Amino acid sequence: MTVVTTANVNGIRAAAKKGFLEWLAATSADVVCLQEVRAEVAQLPPELRDADGWHTLWAPAAAKGRAGVAVLSRTAPQRTQIGFGSTEFDGSGRYAEIDLPGLTIASLYLPSGEVDTERQTEKERFMAEFLVHLTELRTRAAAEGREVLVCGDWNIAHQQADLKNWKANQKASGFLPEERAWLTRVLDEAGYVDVVRRHHPDQDGPYSWWSYRGRAFDNDSGWRIDYLMASQKLADSCVKAHVERPASHAERWSDHAPVTAVFDLDQLL
């Protein structure tokens, strides 16, 4: 079995002090994709910079203290890539990709946006470019006999079941009709499968992000915005997908929870 986890750490240095390092030491994951690292490589705790048993690819943002993604793998990658060929976004710390035998895995941190601001138009530009990349990536991988898994914080709740207070958020970034339609295109046109939703087809959530404000976590008033998007054959090999929701508010090391999927890659042979 191959286990892949994605987690927005909301600042790796802060998360490391709250329990992330203990989580990493205990995880059964073979690959861990991180987002919102918000640190240069030299600023990482030594336990992460030279993480024992892990091969690491760090992609910090050119703007210090912003964004940043990483991919940690127990197997040495055959190829690594930072960015997806975008003049505007390749230095923004939002995409990193590795090749393992028969499998390409990427960590994505899609911009969050804010309605009626430049942040939203930036998000829209990113989405337009990234959909092209997703389509080309899957097509190229299929020609090479490879499967694809794009993990991360997509900053969009796709359906009403993906956020608790959907009625109040219909005009908010992250649940705009055009954003949700774009995510539908990722599934229908680019040919990806949301493996968590496939394994939880008839329930609200499972949510992966809860605001630190109020009692959002205690009331499970969250959003499902962290996805593992798989090519079709890889999705068919997924035997389990779930959110690692902490047992209590005090045990959280981020406002996101890790999202994990288990794949039986022997089915692909």
Distance between the termini: 13 Å
Class in CATH?
A: Alpha Beta
What's the domain count?
1
- Going by CATH, the homologous superfamily would be Endonuclease/exonuclease/phosphatase
Using the 3D structure, state the CATH architecture.
Answer: 4-Layer Sandwich
* Shape label: globular
Unreliable spans are: none
Tally of helical runs: 7
In terms of DSSP E residues, the strand content is: 15-25%
Largest sheet: 6 strands, mixed
How would you name the oligomeric state of the polypeptide chains in this document? single chain
What CATH calls the topology is Deoxyribonuclease I, Chain A
How big is the Rg? 17 Å
From N to C, what is the helix and strand string?
Answer: EHHEHEEEEEHEHEHEHEE
Widest beta sheet: strand line-up? 3-4-2-1-12-11
Overall average residue pLDDT: 95
- Measured as a percent range, the helix fraction is 10-25%
Structural class per helix/strand content?
Answer: alpha+beta
Number of strands: 12
Explain this structure to me?
The protein is α+β, with helices and mostly antiparallel strands and 269 residues long. It has a single domain (2-268), classed as Endonuclease/exonuclease/phosphatase (Deoxyribonuclease I, Chain A, 4-Layer Sandwich), CATH 3.60.10.10. It has helices at 12-18, 20-26, 46-49, 118-143, 177-188, 195-199, 232-236, and strands spanning 2-8, 31-35, 55-59, 69-73, 79-82, 95-100, 103-109, 147-153, 192-194, 226-231, 238-243, 259-263. Strands 3-4-2-1-12-11 form a 6-stranded mixed β-sheet. It has a 6-stranded mixed β-sheet with strand order 5-6-7-8-10-9. α4 (118-143) packs parallel to α5. The longest helix is centred in the middle third of the chain and has 26 residues, at 118-143.
